[in-house]
Fold this protein.
Amino acid sequence: MKKITGIFTLLILALLITISNKSTAQQNAATPRDGRHDFDFNFGTWKTHVSRLLHPLTGSTIWAEYDGISFVRKVWNGRASTLELQVDGPAGHLEGVGLRLYNPESHQWSLNWANGSQGVMTQPMIGEFKDGSGVFFDQENFNGRAIFTRNGFYNITPTSSRFEQAYSADGGNTWEVNWIMTFTRVPDESGSSH
C-alpha cells in the first residue's frame, strides 16, 4: 500500500508540475514584449534618399526622387525620439519632423509627423516591432475618401534601413507603396558608425 501511495503521490506531483509549467508558459506568452528600445537602431545622422509617388491611388507611376539628410535624436532615454528630415530634388524641397512615443502600457509606439509646408501634426500611426521590422497603421482621409495607411521599417542593420509608406483604398486587401526612404548611416566624428 505504501508503494501505491508513493506512486500516486509522485503522479500527483508530476501533474502539478506540468500544470504549473503550462501556466507559466501561458503567462509568458501573454506578457507583451518590452519594446521601449525598438528605435535605438535609428539614433544618429543618416544620408537619406526619398522616392515619392506623386499621385497616389490614381494608377500613376510617376515618382519624384530626393536626397538629403536625417537626424534622429533620443528623448526620455529612448522611450521617445525625434526625426528631422531635409531632402531636395528636381521636384523641390521637403522637410518634416517626426515624434515617436512609446506607450509602456500597450507596448506600442505612436508615430507623429508634421511636414514643413503645413506645420501641423498628422494623426498618429500606432504599431510595434516584431521579427526585426516595425509596422504601424492608421485610418485617414485622402482626397475625400477614407483609406488605411501603413508605415514600416524594414531591412534594419547598424548602418542602414528602409522605410515605406503605403495606402489601401480597399480596406487593406491591397496596398500601394507611395513613399520610400532609404537610410545610410553617416559615421560620427569619432569614426564609429554609431
In short: The chain has two domains: 1-31, 40-185. The longest helix spans residues 2-30.
